[in-house]
Structure prediction request, 442 residues.
Amino acid sequence: MLHEEVVGRIRDILLDGEIPPGARIPERELCERLDISRTPLREALKVLAAEGLVQLLPHRGSRAAKLTDKDMRDLFEVCQGLEALAGELACERITDADIAEIAAAHAAMVQHYREGDLIQYYRGNRAIHEGIVNAAGNPVLSGLYASVTARIRRARYVTPMTSQRWAFAVSEHEAILNALQRRDGAGLSHILRAHLRHKREEVLQAGFAETDTNELTLKIA
Amino acid sequence: MLHEEVVGRIRDILLDGEIPPGARIPERELCERLDISRTPLREALKVLAAEGLVQLLPHRGSRAAKLTDKDMRDLFEVCQGLEALAGELACERITDADIAEIAAAHAAMVQHYREGDLIQYYRGNRAIHEGIVNAAGNPVLSGLYASVTARIRRARYVTPMTSQRWAFAVSEHEAILNALQRRDGAGLSHILRAHLRHKREEVLQAGFAETDTNELTLKIA
DNA sequence: TTTTGCATTTTTGAATGCAAAATTTGGAAT
DNA sequence: ATTCCAAATTTTGCATTCAAAAATGCAAAA
Prediction:
């Protein structure tokens, strides 16, 4: 198994919440599961720590990073900035074909909304945002965006989605597609910022504060 | 020696150009120099690869990453976006004390300019930009900024600095400080973007294209 | 002289072993 | 019964070792 694959596998385990935020990462167990020795596992953990997904405590092992409200706010803030930048650049550089692709993804997402399929809706949503970012044609930007959204991702799904909010989000997406089709960089940038601001408010109001497993057991006891 | 320290030491070696872009990273040599074994060294190299400073070639070891013109353009583009965001946020949040600190750094930098001390000028320049970014009060943003500027840094010093350009850069910095003191977020953001755009033009016009050592030896031969 | 094929050497990537540190356990004293 | 302390166990971090892959050198053939 290649180094990057090990990193990816562990990243997925963390993002799926299989190892909950704040929980210790059991080296030996993961080694057996991935069928590798501790050396490559620890290399991967160090990389994930640099990404902010893992917290290393010297001589005390590693834990799945726990995000505070402040962390989440900061991540959204940066995410807003990155998407806003991507929106402007995308409008300058995107091809008609790529616009068509994003329009198709948008239509599919709206269909999932009509069907009330939240999971598929989120998947489509993500594809659109990623499509815009990638349309900026800047791999550095795409890379940072991927890193930031990965850390945010878990929170997105814990947010309760009311029908009113959902409808509003879809309307925002209509505006996003419209600005993109008009290649209105400033407009797109503005809408994206607002869209993310709203999402952030939802997540933070939902009382996002990752309690680590120890605290949780204490509360239960 | 702590893991983070190893990463830092190697990062410095790369940023100082001691191992030139494209050159192989001699594991054994570095091990002896840092007085560590290959295990922690390789952990550090993997982290630096994730940061984009090192390129890993499976079964062929690691090389100092070589930046193309496109890479440099992309990095500057993202850097612009990050600084613009930081500028807006800083104006909302910065304290009078922090403004005073940046003003002092600015004065010192101008003094270095008058004395013609380019090295000290660059150092002061960097302190100001970092000060603004940190004043945004967003560690995620500060982290990404550090990572992006690290990769750009080497190029900055290869740019020939004419007295005209230098004077203009200083005048831009006057405007930056002014906007910050007025807490004019939009204005600061705008000036920072222009400032970086100019810097980027200089760097790219200087014909930045990192030739790796092999190509170099071929040219010499 | 240049090129090709093979053996040797070097280097890489990963497993193992070992010392140091931290955690847990068990028992004694209060 | 509870608290505190020391011994035992586990876990961490790193050096070493080992197998596989790549690079190098050399001789033979074109």
The CA atoms of residues 82 and 145 of chain B lie 7 Å apart.
